[in-house]
UniProtKB/TrEMBL annotation:
<dbReference type="InterPro" id="IPR022653">
    <property type="entry name" value="De-COase2_pyr-phos_BS"/>
</dbReference>
<dbReference type="GO" id="GO:0005737">
    <property type="term" value="C:cytoplasm"/>
</dbReference>
<keyword id="KW-0663">Pyridoxal phosphate</keyword>
<comment type="similarity">
    <text>Belongs to the Orn/Lys/Arg decarboxylase class-II family.</text>
</comment>
<dbReference type="GO" id="GO:0033387">
    <property type="term" value="P:putrescine biosynthetic process from arginine, via ornithine"/>
</dbReference>
<dbReference type="GO" id="GO:0004586">
    <property type="term" value="F:ornithine decarboxylase activity"/>
</dbReference>
<dbReference type="Pfam" id="PF02784">
    <property type="entry name" value="Orn_Arg_deC_N"/>
</dbReference>
<dbReference type="InterPro" id="IPR022644">
    <property type="entry name" value="De-COase2_N"/>
</dbReference>
<comment type="pathway">
    <text>Amine and polyamine biosynthesis; putrescine biosynthesis via L-ornithine pathway; putrescine from L-ornithine: step 1/1.</text>
</comment>
<feature type="active site" description="Proton donor">
    <location>
        <position position="321"/>
    </location>
</feature>
<keyword id="KW-0210">Decarboxylase</keyword>
<dbReference type="InterPro" id="IPR009006">
    <property type="entry name" value="Ala_racemase/Decarboxylase_C"/>
</dbReference>
<keyword id="KW-0456">Lyase</keyword>
<feature type="modified residue" description="N6-(pyridoxal phosphate)lysine">
    <location>
        <position position="48"/>
    </location>
</feature>
<protein>
    <recommendedName>
        <fullName>ornithine decarboxylase</fullName>
        <ecNumber>4.1.1.17</ecNumber>
    </recommendedName>
</protein>
<dbReference type="InterPro" id="IPR002433">
    <property type="entry name" value="Orn_de-COase"/>
</dbReference>
<feature type="domain" description="Orn/DAP/Arg decarboxylase 2 N-terminal">
    <location>
        <begin position="25"/>
        <end position="259"/>
    </location>
</feature>
């Protein structure tokens, strides 16, 4: 139904392409569904997925909070009406000035994963609650984090004991199994590792209480993933199996909140045959919204607006002069054989990690324009 509302807006307003339209009623619906599936957990929407003010208002209005990664994201959430207590600072890579800014604005929950960051927290956010992020392998993720974030599980108890010694509040353990994670069992490894650290800390006189299971819930783009209920069931049973006392649970969905609420309308710029393959060039590409096509990680669903009929294979590419601005050359896509320059194509489930990843002016192409709908019409300030 969000697609119908968005298409009605597109046909009435006729904005130029490319553009992203986000239906914020769907955002609110997803937040309510996630809250229902994880009834005792606090939801902290990962703002980087889509930081539009109307999206943040919808998340907050439906009872969610926000996970922020920078001073600008904190400002955006507060401007959208968030209480500082509804914000958590999940980025473990932060300057002392960023920490001081967050603390001055009332943010009290932070995630850390290294002694240097912990020392900066003790100095600039004295007494703050800290969770230690551990590295959990999630090989099935479409966009894995590799080893960039999270300490080794063996180092976590030392960091939490150190947090305690520095006068911080050692709250618990955080992990993230990688975005677009199709395997609900990926969370079990994190839950098990966290339970062991809870026990190690208790033996050292540090009582932990919080378990942050991150984001990563997948969306059905072209390949089916489990339902939110399926993810929730697997995670709830892992927590029950490894934790004798139920911890305080936090989760940080980004994609699952906003992806299905958004649609990108794009236009075909050129169709050409090269070495026997039909290339279709769109006015949206890697640099103005489709960053997640890097390595063809996210296979979006495409729907031609103007033409049907017999389809044939295509290579899809973006509009810029960069050789890497190719969307799909290995992933099989088929589009109508009658497709011509000027025809429109809709990219579905494109609300997450599109506009926020768009460059400001590569080749003079402006960032992806976003329109947010509330109750089917243009939201205030959108
Ligand atoms: C990006 C991010 C998320 C959101 O991940 P999704 O896969 O979009 O759900 C959650 N937590 C942290 C710390 C992140 O960096």
């Amino acid at each position: 139904m969000s697609v119908e509302r968005i298409r009605r807006f597109l046909s009435e307003a006729g904005p130029g392409t490319p553009c992203l339209v986000v239906d914020t009623d769907t955002v609110a619906e997803r937040v309510r569904e996630l809250v229902r599936e994880f009834p005792h957990a606090r939801l902290r929407y990962a703002v980087k997925a889509n930081p539009e003010p109307a999206v943040l208002r919808a998340v907050l209005g439906a009872g969610g909070g926000c996970d922020v990664a920078s001073p600008a994201e904190i400002e955006a959430c507060l401007a959208a009406g968030a209480e500082p207590a509804a914000l958590s600072y999940g980025n473990t890579i932060k300057k002392p000035a960023d920490i001081a800014f967050a603390w001055a604005r009332g943010v009290r929950d932070f995630t850390t994963d290294a002694p240097g960051d912990l020392a900066a927290l003790a100095e600039h956010a004295p007494g703050a609650s800290v969770s230690v992020r551990i590295l959990v392998d999630g090989p099935a993720s479409a966009t894995p984090f590799g080893q960039k974030f999270g300490c080794e599980p063996d180092q976590a108890a030392d960091l939490l004991a150190e947090a305690d010694r520095l006068g911080l509040d050692p709250a618990g353990i955080a992990f993230h199994v990688g975005s677009q994670q199709p395997d609900p069992a990926a969370w079990e490894a994190g839950v098990a590792a966290a339970a062991k650290i809870f026990a190690d800390c208790a033996a050292r006189g540090v009582r932990l209480r919080r378990l942050n299971i991150g984001g990563g819930f997948g969306i059905t783009y072209r390949d089916a993933v489990p339902s939110l209920a399926g993810y929730a069931r697997a995670i709830r049973s892992a927590v029950a199996a490894y934790f004798p006392d139920e911890p305080e649970v936090l989760f940080e969905p980004g994609r699952a909140v906003v992806a299905e609420a958004g649609l990108i309308r794009t236009e075909v710029v050129l169709v050409a045959t090269r070495f026997g393959r039909r290339w279709v060039y769109l006015d949206v590409g890697r640099y103005n919204g489709l960053a997640e096509t890097e390595n063809e990680a996210i296979p979006y669903r495409l729907e031609p607006v103007d033409r049907g009929g017999e389809r044939g294979p295509v290579v899809l590419a973006g509009p810029t002069c960069d050789g890497d601005d190719v969307l799909y050359q290995r992933t099989p896509y088929e589009l109508p054989l009658s497709l011509r320059a000027g025809d429109r194509i809709d990219i579905l489930d494109a609300g997450a990690y599109t506009a926020s990843y768009s460059s400001v002016a590569f080749n003079g192409i402006p960032p992806l324009r976003t329109y947010c709908l509330e109750g089917g019409t243009l939201a205030d300030g959108a």
